[in-house]
Amino acid sequence: MMKTSSVELNPFSLMMEPEVVLQTMERSQQLRGLRRHKLRPLDKPLIPLTKEALASRAAFDAAIDAEELEAMEDGDLLN
């Protein structure tokens, strides 16, 4: 059984000693056992949008913006 001191369990002391954290991570069998895979950024669509889809999105955004402006003019929005 591994001994852990209260200093090692304190997150604030760990922030002050990042090298200890890195060494512990390198020795961790649990971390080594994790599956590794590449993640793709969420801001890149895998399927390119068609012109119709882009036009539909622009029309929807314009309608929402118009509703918000109308609500602001009517004083319906809360501050």
How would you sum up this structure, described in words?
- The protein has 79 residues and is an all-alpha fold.
- Helix content is 61%, strand content 0%.
- It contains five helices and no strands.
- The N and C termini lie far apart (57 Å).
- The mean pLDDT is 77.
Low-pLDDT residue intervals, each spanning 5 or more residues = none
Spatial gap, N to C terminus: 57 Å
The biggest beta sheet is recorded as:
none
The averaged pLDDT comes out at 77
**Strand residue content:** under 5%
DSSP helical segment count: 5
Oligomer: single chain
Helix content: 55-70%
CA-based shape: elongated
What is the ordering of alpha helices and beta strands?
Answer: HHHHH
Class based on secondary structure composition and strand pairing: mainly alpha
Radius of gyration: 26 Å
Tell me the number of strands: 0
Short description:
The chain is 61% helix and 0% strand. The protein is mostly helical and 79 residues long.
Question: Which SSEs are present, and which pair or pack?
Answer:
Elements lengths: L5 H4 L1 H6 L1 H10 L1 H4 L18 H24 L5
Distinctive features:
mainly alpha; single chain; 79 residues; 61% helix
